[in-house]
Design brief:
Layout: H1 2-24, H2 36-47, H3 55-62, E1 72-74, H4 79-89, E2 93-98, E3 101-110, H5 111-119, H6 130-133, E4 135-136, H7 149-158, E5 163-168, E6 171-177, H8 178-200
Parallel strand pairs: 1-2
Antiparallel strand pairs: 2-3, 3-4, 5-6
Helix pairs in contact: 1-7, 1-8, 7-8
Length: 204
């Protein structure tokens, strides 16, 4: 999975460079200098181009913003209840907060934590608290709503994580998964290719 994502990012860069070069080709029948209209259109293409999608765009698409709709549990919840919540909502991780402090993140608990620290070690999920097995806040890798999607993907692949909390000066804003990020990148590349195609055909 990780190797495939790196290959995808690398392929995306190749596609980006190839298509932009194609868009800038000048017909031998045209003057060497681009017209003012053409140069302005090309600049607009690049401004709207690849790598423009932010994590805030992903959160909006998910419908999980600062209104608290992102899934969470507390450090005092049992691991059993946390895993049950993950299963019910079809997610692989939960944000962990202290009781009564939803805006302040204490850590994150993932399916991997459950497998490695409960199942493999033969511990009881009903008697073990989330706070005992979670990844603590000071060890978390996080992004902000303004982080570019490709930067988030790079952080996730480099650190071999599948979920990353989104935090800003106001506190916890949500969480995105590697699946969310990949879908956003694919969508961005598709839209960019459509824009460049329209530019080449004179749509700009």
């Amino acid at each position: 999975m990780q190797g495939g994502i790196r290959a995808f990012v690398s392929h995306g860069s190749i596609v980006k460079n190839a298509v932009l070069q194609h868009a800038r080709l000048i017909s031998p029948l045209k003057p060497i200098m681009m017209s003012r209209h053409e140069s302005t259109a090309a600049a607009r293409i690049e401004e709207q181009g690849f790598e423009s999608t932010k994590i805030s765009d992903v959160l909006k698409a998910k419908g999980k913003g600062a209104d608290g709709s992102w899934l969470w549990c507390t450090i005092d919840d049992s691991v059993y209840d946390a895993v049950k919540s993950m299963t019910q909502h079809n997610v692989g991780a939960l944000v962990v907060v202290k009781p009564g402090e939803k805006s302040s993140i204490a850590g994150i608990i993932t399916e991997r934590d459950y497998l490695r620290k409960i199942i493999v070690q033969g511990r009881s999920s009903k008697s073990t608290k989330v706070g005992d097995i979670m990844t603590e806040e000071n060890k978390l890798i996080t992004v902000t709503p303004d982080t570019k999607v490709l930067k988030a993907m790079q952080l996730m692949t480099d650190n071999r994580i599948r979920h990353i909390p989104v935090i800003d000066e106001k506190g916890m804003q949500g969480m995105v998964s590697i699946g969310d990020v990949v879908r956003a990148v694919v969508s961005e590349h598709r839209e960019e290719l459509n824009r460049l195609n329209a530019f080449i055909q004179g749509g700009y």
